[in-house]
Amino acid sequence: MNHPDRQSLAGAPVTSRARLSPRLSLFGVLAVLLVVGLGSRLRAFVTEGASTRWPANSTIVLSLQLGSHGQGALQDGSANFDVVAQQATSLWNGYLGSNVRFVTLLGGAAAGVQSDNVNNVFFADTYFGSSFGDAIAITGLAGDNSFLDQTDTVFNNAFNWESYRGNLQRVDSITIYDLRRVAIHEFGHTLGLDHPDGAKPRQTVTAIMNSHASNTDVMQADDINGVMSIYGTPAPTPTPTPQISVPALPADQVLGGAVGHVYSSPGDPVGKGLEAMLDAPGGYGTVHHRREIEATTGRTLHRFLFLRNAGVPTDDWIVTIATPVGQTALANGTFTASSTGHGNASSYDLLVSRQNGSAVDATSSLASAQLVVSGVTYAGVNLSSLALDLRLSQSATSAPLFLALQLRFNTPAIPLPSARIVNLSTRVNVGTQSAQAIAGFVFSDPTGTGKQALIRILGRSLTSFGVPGTLGDPVVELRGANGALLSTNDDWANPGFYAPPQAPIFSLGLEPASRTDSILLNRFTGGAFTAVASGFDNGRGPDTGVALVEMYDLEIGSDAIPLNVSTRGQVGTGANVMIAGFVIQGPGTKKVIVRALGPSLTAFGVVGALADPTVSVFNASGTQIATNDNWQTDANSAAVSAKNLAPTNPVESALYLVLGPGSYTAVVRGVSNSTGVALVEVYDAD
Question: Do strands 437-444 and 590-597 pair parallel, antiparallel, or not at all (unpaired)?
């Protein structure tokens, strides 16, 4: 049922909210006018009601799909409108209690349907096929009779959009709308705030939540009091220690012949970021070491500057380690840097930044990181040798600055870690029984410390990337080598499943866009594990559809490593072939064996095995680098046999490859468009 509530003033555009939920209770529709005007004195905020709020411990994951919208550089310097919307969520996060927070995912494709369990934010000509009328934006809210669980915010293509501060701008009597203030307003509705000037009786206040667009460009005291009345007062969070540009000085010790390696770069999800070899071939000319006393605490700061060959401070990496007061030199050992160490004279602290020109374009104050120092010696005040390993566990920033960084100086016995396979992602049709998707992982753990890794099963999250027929409600089970159930998850965003913002999935940017997708965070010891992906049975039989099964290595610098990763699933035709992606992180190269098995699965009780599989491997640019049908015909078949990985059936496929760092894709098809269940595997062959 629809309950319009429009105030018509001078034909100005309006912003409206629609609470739409075909699958749950229907809340109705509210449309309000957005005109130019000014609020007056503060009286009271207005909320939408007890049932229109998010439960405690909720993570509101917004899939931002606004992009540049045909604009060049925005007035406020933002790269695009996704960044602008992200700024709006960050402003609200500063006032949210009850462990409720916004998390944003950038760069999705425009959504086409409602009720997809993804909180979409995008531009469109209509609101899911319905006319905007004169609304400039519509936010739809869905939930049950107790809490919200999904929203969609759509901005009207018919209006002119920018991002700026201060008074509303007009050109030739046409309003240029500031998306940031409108996004703040709309996301206020997402949190449960209503329009105070639309209340009965009317409230006369200064608030960005007023229905009138005004020169107010950020939330006011009334808005803040309103959101705190719903979610409580936010807990204080540590203030990151600021990092300033650090130029090289003539007095710095130059570490001749030093080499380093950074895995991932600012803003990139784990396993998908760039890698940098911090050496001359990688574009870095020198490594400087500087030691100084921190004025505020008396701690010793050890700065390591990786400078570009050109001498211009662009993409220079700076690693700053603060040792406790009284410890003026780096000592061998394993140390922990945490958020509580910022400014604490007795604690280790760690800052990593990458500077661009005279400004630092990315800085990470680590909430939890492990620092391993070995082989360190000094000659007076200068370093004689050093092996340094930093491994990020969690970042206090919204996206990781790095996942692992190593430095080696005069320590030939402690080389940089070799290249390794760090994650697997397989897009596959998830069916029932034998056609369930089963991912396997084998870990080596020589030190017994284990490996923290994340398993994700994405279904509805794939919809915003144009994937049809997605699995609506995936479930994941993790089992050990003996088949024992270790853990399970359905609907990752259920309140309390992970407590934000401490969980690594948030700091690493790995939150699924859809609340019905599933994740498991686990510390894996040495041995074999399987993750079984299936569809939830909603009473009509298990759900089926296309899903992405993923494993992410969250501790790239650790000694525990995945030796092989595999996925068993249904191979279809066309867009429904099996697509396995894997990431190799360096330095150096990695020998791998990629196999596609079909008929040999029958011996293990698999029904409907693919009779004749083929496998092709592509690099990140989409170029095919190898293909095979019938493993014995491959030029490197002897190397496959030497590793005892020869398939038992001659029609099955295998490739032996030597690959550099990067992302790769293995596509499994059936000969002559045949279909069936297959197993794709990637083995560490070093």
Answer: unpaired
